[in-house]
UniProtKB/TrEMBL annotation:
This is Thioredoxin peroxidase. Thiol-specific peroxidase that catalyzes the reduction of hydrogen peroxide and organic hydroperoxides to water and alcohols, respectively. Plays a role in cell protection against oxidative stress by detoxifying peroxides. It comes from Belliella baltica (strain DSM 15883 / CIP 108006 / LMG 21964 / BA134). It comes from the Bacteria. It is found in: Cytoplasm. Belongs to the peroxiredoxin family. AhpC/Prx1 subfamily. The lineage of its organism: Bacteria, Pseudomonadati, Bacteroidota, Cytophagia, Cytophagales.
Length: 209
């Protein structure tokens, strides 16, 4: 089920911050009332598509921060695995230089609660608890507003890398809507015309575009 329009699930979990420090009890609640959050899941440390996305978010981090938006990542790996990957140079497949928090969801409960776990628990014929599927997170991206409400979500299958530019565009759209009370039409970008949510507004927009 979609989380759009609902409170983002609460969690407290270990994370690596600033690319070098493990902290316990990291939570998105620290941003409520202060910042929007882009919270994204990736499948696994030391893989192939994942570092391209993680490093791409880092390359655009200043753009998110300029808009007052926090970027936070998560996977089902341990915090020690995150730290080891963060200390591995890019030319060796690592993500050295990433500074935003990376959450360790080893119990897989965060991924489950956000609806991005690539499988589920079940019982076999012997009554044993088993996991069916792949015990990692899909490539889920969640845009959470300052009230802790999920305003947009996108979930990609494991081989499909996401667009960080599109995530930034959606941040701009959300902030425009909240600032001006207008709605954003298809392919809207910062600096382009938006419209009022009325018949007259739609008519004027379609006439001009």
């Amino acid at each position: 089920m979609s989380l759009v329009g609902k409170k983002a699930p609460i969690f407290n979990s270990p994370a690596v911050i600033n690319g070098e420090e493990i902290v316990e009890g990291f939570s998105l609640e620290q941003f409520i009332g202060n910042k929007e959050v882009v919270f994204f899941f990736y499948p696994k440390d030391f893989t192939f598509v994942c570092p391209t996305e993680i490093l791409a978010f880092q390359e655009k981090l200043a753009e998110f921060e300029k808009r007052g938006v926090a970027v936070v990542a998560a996977s089902t790996d341990t915090e020690e695995s995150h730290l080891a990957w963060l200390n591995t140079p890019k030319e060796q497949g690592g993500i050295m230089g990433v500074t935003y928090p990376i959450v360790a969801d080893t119990a897989k409960t965060i991924a489950h609660n956000f609806g991005v776990l690539a499988g589920e628990w079940n019982y076999n014929e012997e009554g044993e608890l088993i996991f069916e599927g792949t015990p990692v997170a899909y490539r889920g991206t969640f845009l959470i507003d300052k009230n802790g409400i999920v305003r947009q979500e996108t979930i990609n299958d494991l081989p499909l890398g996401r667009s960080i530019d599109e995530t930034l565009r959606l941040v701009d759209a959300l902030q425009h809507v909240e600032k001006f009370g207008e709605v954003c039409p298809a392919n809207w970008e910062e600096g382009k015309e938006a419209m009022t949510a009325t018949k007259e507004g739609v008519s004027a927009y379609l006439t001009n575009n």
